[in-house]
Task: inverse folding
């Protein structure tokens, strides 16, 4: 049973997550406001960030950096800047 939400990132109605994917209040906000397609976009960016910046999920500082990038990307309309990466032309 899928649910439809108004996605803050996409600025339109879209399919919501099946369950909360991230802990805490931020996770609850993501569950309420971020659609599956938007989360998939973030997952791609997150993987690129982790690889490029050699982030470790065991390191609390790295997790903080990633969380801030996620907030910027999902809620504040800021794209993730990745060195040497040029997005494909639309």
Result:
């Amino acid at each position: 049973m899928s649910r439809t939400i108004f996605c803050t990132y996409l600025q339109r109605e879209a399919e919501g997550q099946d369950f909360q994917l991230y802990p805490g209040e931020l996770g609850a906000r993501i569950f309420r406001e971020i659609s599956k397609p938007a989360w998939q976009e973030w997952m791609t960016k997150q993987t690129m960030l982790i690889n490029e910046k050699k982030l470790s999920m065991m390191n609390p500082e790295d997790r903080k950096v990633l969380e801030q990038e996620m907030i910027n990307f999902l809620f504040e309309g800021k794209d993730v800047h990745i060195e040497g990466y040029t997005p494909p032309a639309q």
Notes: The radius of gyration is 14 Å. The chain has one domain: 4-76.
